[in-house]
Amino acid sequence: MAGVKKDYVRPLDLKNGRIDMNHGAGGRASMQLIEELFARAFDNAGLRHGNDGATLSAPPELLDGGRLVVSTDGHVVSPLFFPGGDIGCLAVHGTVNDVAMMGARPLWLSAGFILEEGLALAELKRIVESMAAAARETGVLVVTGDTKVVEEGKGDGCFISTTGVGVVPAGIEIGGALARPGDVVLLSGTIGDHGVAVLSKRESLDFETEIVSDTAALHGLVAAMLRAAPPGAVHAMRDPTRGGLGTTLNEIARQSGAGIVIDEAAVPIRPQVEAACELLGLDPLYIANEGKLVAFVSPHGAAAVLTAMRSHPLGRDAARIGEVVADEHRFVQMKTRLGGHRIVDWLSGEPLPRIC
Q: Which of 206, 213, 271, 278 could share a disulfide with 194, CB 3.0–4.6 Å?
């Protein structure tokens, strides 16, 4: 209408702009950030409604006796970008994997972003697009979320909290407390890749061969394992992220009330990762991974599951690394290459801060 001033809003400058406190104030700038960046990247029917929550239709598996699995994770990696990944894809992979370790098919994610004032919008765009690509590749939808901004110096660029929801079919029972003496311990591949990749970027370390994060979504590998396994053969699974394989094995031993014995020579480690850990005085058993799993499988199903793992792209280096034993002390022990034994204790301290 003539004489009426149009309500014009300048588009976000996603190339040179930066996050400021207005983006977290809940007003026009907040809505613009959501609409022009997050909503475009994660676009789906549930998110498009623009409500504070998402209404979701139950999948057929749930109606046929399946159960929901829910997991929440926080991601505070520094630096935000590292060889092989970034905090965006990591946020998807980490939560999808936690859902998958229960034998579930991941379906939906919620995402909460804590942004620091001064974060370049170009970096945020890169993170969000990486997250959206990982979600598409994984087949999950980011259906709801939230964004907050903190003052400069009170954050670390970007923190992401994600909650994942999936469905586990009827008849699947997997949990840390279900590992039992006699179970075979299977590891899906090499350990320490992610933690050393992040450390190398943060500390500007150069190695003869680049070490790349193993971040990946493991639900496809899990599905292949469950298809190959005899009914009920897979008792427990866990992705050895923060605290590494050593801490994860102690978690399972504590939950199950049993002991675990692993063979040092059987644990796959890339030579460059092993060399880096030796140089830095780190134990690969306690270095974080983001694309590996450890499974506890009954003896009669272990061979079939291991074959299925090695047939999958994310399990080519899978190995049988040990077994669960009766032990009221719940010790985790390792047979060393020299023929002795040593205790693999819980991680003490934090050798690599902010890696997941």
A: 213
CA–CA gap between residue 2 and residue 206 (Å, rounded): 64
End-to-end CA distance of the chain: 54
Which residues contact residue 204 at a Cβ distance below 8 angstroms, ignoring those fewer than 6 apart?
none
Residue 169 burial (CB count, 10 A): 17
Check if the beta carbon of residue 140 is closer than 8 Å to that of residue 164.
yes
For residue 1, the model assigns a pLDDT of: 37
Give pLDDT < 50 ranges for the chain.
1-6
**Which helix H or strand E contains 165, and what residues bound it?**
strand 158-168
Q: Which amino acid does the sequence have at 52?
A: D
Helix axis angle for 219-228 and 87-100, nearest 10°, is: 20
Q: Report pLDDT digits (tens) over 268-279.
A: 999 999 999 998
- DSSP secondary structure string for all residues of 77-107: -SSSEETTEEHHHHHHHHHHHHHHTTT-EEE
Distance CA 19, CA 28 (A): 14
